[in-house]
Amino acid sequence: xxxxxxxxxxxxxxxxxxxxxxxxxxxxxxxxxxxxxxxxxxxxxxxxxxxxxxxxxxxxxxxxxxxxxxxxxxxxxxxxxxxxxxxxxxxxxxxxxxxxxxxxxxxxxxxxxxxxxxxxxxxxxxxxxxxxxxxxxxxxxxxxxxxxxxxxxxxxxxxxxxxxxxxxxxxxxxxxxxxxxxxxxxxxxxxxxxxxxxxxxxxxxxxxxxxxxxxxxxxxxxxxxxxxxxxxxxxxxxxxxxxxxxxxxxxxxxxxxxxxxxxxxxxxxxxxxxxxxxxxxxxxxxxxxxxxxxxxxxxxxxxxxxxxxxxxxxxxxxxxxxxxxxxxxxxxxxxxxxxxxxxxxxxxxxxxxxxxxxxxxxxxxxxxxxxxxxxxxxxxxxxxxxxxxxxxxxxxxxx
Length: 399
Prior knowledge:
The chain is an alpha+beta fold. The chain has helices at 35-44, 51-54, 97-114, 119-130, 136-143, 150-163, 177-189, 241-245, 250-265, 320-330, 333-339, 366-398; strands at 9-11, 17-19, 21-26, 32-34, 62-68, 75-80, 86-91, 166-172, 194-200, 203-205, 211-213, 216-222, 284-288, 296-303, 308-315, 344-348, 351-359.
């Protein structure tokens, strides 16, 4: 059934009614609202963009600048959260299917380009647009009333840029169902680390000359990448103490990537449909399971400090993946024999999770790493063989 669009009715104190006239988003002309005006409105009033309805992680966004120059072209609006999560907004006309696909392709190009940047790159380009001295990102966040630690913010921002952890918002006033299907297409065919929202922003002219804006989210597709490094008893996975004090973290990231490259080089899983991640510059790898919106996965992790490796069945809270994992845990005895090993359920970071670990010793040693890799590969294969089909079946039943 097609969505019905009706104008708001303004009821005055004397009971008279006025049907408000919706302005059209065009290149200009009487009774219209241009793309430039939409950009300016989003920049001046970021709270009117329904960000958290698309992805609740992107809270308290602050407008940074308009027309940010990139190699892929200028970004209409850039916003950033105090936690270092970037938001890209594209305000476009909606005329035909070809134009709509171009808009989606354009915003994806922006995301790909920003994923090559560091926080310093973004700081430099924003400074060119805002003429603010020092670090304009921190300046704008603090002016908006947020207390931001510079080092933590820059680290988080660089990490999110590198991982492509963005919120992409396409804003228009004439989005219809044909365009909404694009979100579903992206979710089914692209495993990118972003959230996409299609936002319709009807603007109505009020009798006093002001405007009524009624934004609404028409579609969203969330690629969940908020993976928690999870190990027993709520401990955090740590690297060497010297690494934590090292200002140049690039060497640590490179070492971790080499570690996982070595692990993946001889990984052979029985399940041919299990996606294999690329070597990460992190202390863990995530093997996604068949739950909607990437909401359930197996973390394969290492703990350099304590000389141990392990696996954890993780999930995103509030999504169907969480329900699927809890269903598995409720009947864990039925699969323990098939999983083998020393699989347990424990409270990790406030969540009940299935995990398994092995203490191997100094992971800097080639012999120890070889032993750790052999164990991890065998256990991961067993976990995938047992858990993947069950997660798929549970999800199908729930849907």
